[in-house]
Amino acid sequence: MRRKYPDQISGLYLGDGSPFQRVVEYFALSTSDPKRLCLPSSFLTNVHFRFAGALHLFYIEDKAAKDGPNGLPVPRIVRHGFKSLRLSLPKWLRVSCYFLLNKAGWKLYPLEASIWTQRLPFGLYMKQYSRAPNNEANTLGLIEKHTSIPAPRLIDIWESDGTTNIIMTRLSGVPIGEVYHLMSYPERDRFAKDLRACVEQLRRIPNTTPYLICDSLGSPIVDHRIPCGKGGPFKTETEFNDHLASHVAYSFSQLVELEKLPTTRNDHRVYFTHSDFHPSNLLVEQGRLSGIVDWESAGFRPEYWEFTKGMYGAGVEISDIFWRTFGREYESELELERRLWYLTPFGF
């Protein structure tokens, strides 16, 4: 999960003397003398852009070759040691220790911090939740109990100021989106085979909730693909489909008829899914799947959802992962989903 590329930007300044602080800066080019100080040709600028992109790929390849594997798996003794602390130390003392580790993480791993997650020392991660506070923690327990999928292991969980916090182990590897273009075709096939094996294991997790489509606890699902990013729980697939169209003036079946969308079934098998196979959530090491992270949206969904959600917003290279993993089994569902994405972008 460590982001190595590109290196942190420093020492760059714009023409007005202000520092270049972000990955992208928007600005307008102008000149006081168009004849003597003409602006650069847009054609030449575009050529430079294309060469720069190609050169950057060589830079990434060189860095990957030099740096080797990204991190080491957390030793079992460390994992069990922290779990023992959970049983032996009072909550206030554990939480104090975690926040001290969090401060250390900010200093040691500044490039691996986000609004909700922070890498910590000792091979750990800290994550905060507000939308689905207990789903990921419960899901990690299900993964550990029912599968051998390489997922983070839950260490501790607590609530503070209305926010749920969890401590979990860190996985080795880099996001597939950063290195997929460097992988050989046999490596891509092997990665897809690994991912398919994980999907098959997920599908064996039993649904013990009273609902058909829900999160791991039988609560509403959280997913940026659906209207308002949240919905359910649902007792039938028809209810779920209607929710996908709930922000327009028609039911799902009416929307399909009016927009001449491809027809769909409402009797799909429902399985446990990760529901967010974004390329940043799939880790690879030495050409093999080394981890799957970010289980916040996990839960029970129609069988096609893992595939179509992975294709949601995916480029050509990343789409190749899911074609290799799932084959052509859900082409009709993907066609319908793509039309729905166009009609209702981002579920709103």
From TrEMBL:
InterPro entries, alphabetized:
AGP_Transferase (IPR051678), Aminoglycoside_PTrfase (IPR002575), Kinase-like_dom_sf (IPR011009)
Q: Which residues form the Aminoglycoside phosphotransferase domain?
A: 134-333
SUPFAM superfamilies (UniProt xref): Protein kinase-like (PK-like)
Q: Which domain of life is it from?
A: Eukaryota
Q: Which GO terms describe its molecular function?
A: transferase activity
Name the keywords, alphabetized: Transferase
Q: What is this protein called?
A: Phosphotransferase enzyme family
What does the record give as the organism's lineage? Eukaryota, Fungi, Dikarya, Ascomycota, Pezizomycotina
